[in-house]
Write a structure and sequence with these properties.
about 180 residues; alpha+beta; Aminopeptidase; 3-stranded antiparallel beta sheet; 7 strands; about 25% strand; globular
Length: about 180
């Protein structure tokens, strides 16, 4: 059936827990904090995501960010998010957009689908240019970013991640009249 990008919902609690469990088993620490929260109190997890999107009760150094789930036939295949602006930390590591695909669903075009959708949402928010980062060794993610128009800005050591991070800028519209790298 068709792919849908939706906002997190209680209706897909079991499907999301299954996604998080598979992701955690395969990739470990990337989603470790979320794994604990989802298993402890799913309703509180959803409330935190809604508040984060609205910019309510943000932790020190955090920015408003919208989260989405990629779903097909009631199964969560991936997650993606759009940070509404950047901090110095996010310029180094994290960027505007993040995405992750369930290990059993990788290499099927889902990351490209989510990144393109996030570019459209960024454009709707008035962000003309977004920063997307990835581990410099993550060839698959770098390929997705380039496929979606990403232009490599730099590769630098990110102390927060203890790795070399590739930093790409992507215009959210073709021929955008202005650049908003300060977003």
């Amino acid at each position: 059936m068709s792919l849908k990008l939706i906002e997190p919902t209680e209706a897909l609690r079991d499907a999301y827990v299954d996604f998080v469990d598979e992701f955690h088993a395969e990739d470990g620490p990337y989603i470790a904090n979320e794994w604990e929260e989802v298993h402890r109190d799913f309703a509180a997890f959803l409330t935190r995501l809604r508040n984060q999107a609205a910019g309510v009760g943000l932790r020190e150094g955090w920015v408003p960010a919208s989260r989405y789930w990629l779903v097909r036939d009631g199964r969560v295949l991936g997650i993606c998010g759009l940070r509404h602006r950047l901090t110095e930390f996010l310029r180094d590591f994290g960027g505007h957009i993040d995405y992750g695909v369930r290990p059993s669903e990788r290499h099927k075009g889902h990351a490209t689908y989510m990144l393109r959708a996030m570019l459209a949402k960024a454009h709707e928010m008035g962000i003309d240019r977004v920063l997307v980062t990835c581990d410099a060794r993550n060839i698959a993610s770098a390929g997705v970013i380039r496929k979606c128009g990403g232009v490599l800005d730099s590769e630098t050591f990110s102390p927060a991640a203890n790795r070399v991070t590739s930093r790409y800028w992507i215009q959210t519209t073709a021929g955008s009249a202005r650049s908003r790298s300060d977003q």
